[in-house]
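Now for one protein, fold included:
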Amino acid sequence: MKRILSLFLIFVMAVVLTSCAGRKDSDPADDAPYKSPAPPVADASEPAPDSAEPHEPADSSTDETGTEAPSPGGSVLVVFFSATGTTRGVAEKIAALTGADLAEIVPVQPYTSEDLDYSDRTTRTSAEQNDPAARPQLVGDISLNGYSTIYLGYPIWWGQAPRILSSFVEGHDFTGMTVIPFCTSGSSDIGQSDDTLAAQACSGTWLQGRRFPGDVSEDLLMEWINETTDAYMEDTMHLYINGQEASVEWERNESVDALTALVSSGPLSVKMSPYGGFEQVGPLEASLPRNDAQTTTQAGDIVLYSGNQLVVFYGSNSWAYTRLGRITGKSAAELTELLGTGDVTITLALGITG
């Protein structure tokens, strides 16, 4: 689980967009080898496009409604946008190494070589990257149903993800999914582009992204895939109800960070008791930072009450709480069966317990 590193970053994300989060621009000079004040660089490592036509979605089909349906496979999907082919090549390698399905983000208006001309400040990419509200339209849609892990790839333009990535993430619900960003460029790092997309998505567990050159080897990609998987398993906080694991999508806030730190020294068991016919509540070992807000909870919500009480809901209530997370993949009836019949023990642990 990736943590927000600074209050400044949170402030920037909060004030720039009117949605749940905002844009965090990278310094244009970071997009080497081109120097400020050059306008946006379109995937510096990519060759010129062969044509102005959009790429056909790889290993996918489109149904009658225009929704792109990835070919049947496992629970992993690689989604990518590639204006000239470099990101596509890396995405195809990741899909092959992980056995994942593959789907391409295709713009309604294809990007031409003129659009991608970094030396011209009047180009389409310049206008889009300089406009935080720009949202290029996608051809159809990409279904995420049935996937638990999403690799999300894109080139770096002007130190950021192309605005079409914002169109994609804002148009999908990543609840219960782990999103792993990656980007391609000649030299620029991924910067804050992955954090910006995570904030715009407002859902899902987003991991730290990584930048790759277009000619990255399969060995290096495989090393990254393994490291990312291991780090996720080690750093992710798991929740168990009477020993039965429940999938949780944790919030990205200082309260969850403090709870994770508390659990880092070893599994934490909390004796819970039912209250009011809609929740289980139990004391934590320490008080956590709180940011209470009036909240109407739903079954599966996990909140902090009074700074030191863990509350898990199997019904609904309206009160001032600090949100911690939400149990996913279980219906209200299943949660009532788990939580509504008496005292339970909630165990929090990092990694996988025996």
Summary: The radius of gyration is 22 Å. Helices lie at 7-16, 86-98, 124-129, 163-170, 193-201, 218-235, 254-263, 332-339. The first helix runs from residue 7 to 16. Confidence is low (pLDDT under 50) at residues 1-73.
